[in-house]
Amino acid sequence: MTNCWVLIKRELGAYFSTPLAYVFIVIFLALTGALTFFMGAFFERGQADLQSFFSFHPWIYLFLIPAVSMRLWADERKTGTVELLLTLPIPTGVVVIAKFLAAWIFVAIALALTFPLWITVNYLGEPDNGVIIASYIGSLIMAGAYLLPVDPR
């Protein structure tokens, strides 16, 4: 289990050592904000909820999650560390799980940075915060589903 945590920290460090993380987070926050306020008609609806915010998440994930997950193995091959990684006394399944969890944690960080929208909704009205928490959890699970490796067979 400690090998998995070491690999997760390594992958998260790799995300934030390149501009990819910051570009992804800025694009994610800009898209969620623009789609919520402009396309979702947040203020015109007159309701204190984040339904318009969460309704666009499948589409945002559909286009942005591949940018997060494609680099997981491609960078290993590009830098030549895939041979070293696969010859370590760590099962390949643990490596795959660690890479998946690191990408999922990264997306969770990006999702957590949307909390000002939740604060805004609570300032403007009295929303059902239980529904908002459940929607955040559902969105995070959905992001994990988009990150799952697919067997090409």
Q: What is this structure's SSE topology?
A:
Blueprint: H1 2-16, H2 19-39, H3 42-45, H4 51-55, H5 57-69, H6 71-79, H7 82-87, H8 92-112, H9 115-124, H10 129-147
Helix pairs in contact: 1-8, 2-5, 5-10, 8-10
Task: Describe, in plain words, how this protein is organized in 3D.
With 153 residues, this protein is mainly α. The protein has one domain (2-147). Helix content is 80%, strand content 0%. It has helices at residues 2-16, 19-39, 42-45, 51-55, 57-69, 71-79, 82-87, 92-112, 115-124, 129-147.
Which features characterize this protein?
153 residues, mainly alpha, 10 helices
Radius of gyration using CA atoms only: 18 Å
Arithmetic mean pLDDT: 86
Which stretches are poorly predicted, pLDDT < 50 over at least 5 residues?
none
User: In what range is the share of β-strand residues?
Assistant: under 5%
Q: What's the main sheet like?
A: none
Amino-to-carboxy terminus distance: 29 Å
Query: What are the secondary-structure elements, in order, as H or E?
Result: HHHHHHHHHH
Oligomer: single chain
Q: Kindly name the structural category.
A: mainly alpha
Q: What's the total number of strands? A: 0
Helix content: over 70%
Total number of helices: 10
Shape annotation:
elongated
Number of domains as seen in the coordinates: 1
